[in-house]
Amino acid sequence: MKIGFFDSGIGGTTVLYQALKILPNEDYVYYADTAHVPYGEKTKSEIKNFMFEAIDFIVSQNTKAIVIACNTGTSAAITDLRQKYNLPIIGIEPAVKPAIQKSHQTGRRVLALATNFTLKEEKFNNLVTNLDNEHIVDGLALPGLVEFAEKFQFQESVVMPYLVEQLEAFDLNCYETVVLGCTHFPLYKDILRKLFPQHVDIIDGSVGTVNNLKRTLAEIKKIGEGSGKITFYQSGIKLEDPEIVDRYIHLLDRMRSIDA
Ligand code: DGL
């Protein structure tokens, strides 16, 4: 059986990249809902409807577990999805907890970068309210990065001016950690790295999510059933054109080089 990966678009490949490293002996179905991306600018009920359709499809592909590799999708629908489907569903959320813990040692602040939807949602705000007694977490939505990523635009000359403008009002020196709370954003970690001072850590929730997946597969005794094969779908349509499949493979390569 396979593992399903879902994202509103191409961003979930940053989590799939970690899965291929940590769980190489599995086969994967990657589903990008490119017909409806960006989710970050939509309403909760719109997002839920799109996701139920997508998850119905992923479940029909002989999957043993599903990763919602989308912070926005997780905050909109994870509870409903777990109620409806009878297989493990693993979500991702902004890694503010380790970031706040680290800040307690240094006194510096946390900057959470995510979509507008994630930052406005109850799930994120409850998480921050419970952990952030000293009010050290700032949030910034970067929908432009989702747009660039969906157009496969990764050139620094295109992305940097946008980031500089968005971060203009922030004192970058006062941060200890930048939390990438949208799965599209790690694709720009190399560019973000150049903007922030050296002491700033840039983290995301992908490794934690894949470790959860690994634990879950061990629990259900369905671990190590494949060979790293990935089948890609865009909104229910299987990608057969090698040129388009290659674009996705390049994203995994891009993550590998950012990680190196
Ligand atoms: N990749 C998504 C996330 O992790 C959402 C991007 C979007 O569709 O707006 O939040």
Helices and strands in order:
Elements lengths: L1 E6 L5 H10 L5 E5 L11 H16 L3 E6 L2 H14 L4 E2 L5 H11 L2 E6 L1 H5 L1 H10 L5 E5 L1 H8 L5 H11 L8 E6 L8 H7 L5 E4 L1 H14 L10 E5 L2 E2 L3 H18 L1
Parallel strand pairs: 1-2, 1-3, 2-9, 3-4, 5-6, 5-7, 7-8
Antiparallel strand pairs: 9-10
The structure holds D-glutamic acid (DGL).
Describe this structure in words.
The protein is an alpha/beta fold and 260 residues long. The chain contains 11 helices and 10 strands. The chain folds into 2 domains: 2-92 and 206-259, 3-Layer(aba) Sandwich (Rossmann fold); 96-204, 3-Layer(aba) Sandwich (Rossmann fold). Helix 1 (13-22) packs across helix 11 (242-259). The protein is globular and about 50 Å long. 44% of the residues are buried. The model has no long low-confidence stretch (mean pLDDT 97). Bound molecules: D-glutamic acid (DGL). D-glutamic acid binds at residues 7-9, 11, 37-40, 70-72, 115, 118, 146, 182-184. The site of D-glutamic acid has 17 residues, from helix 3.
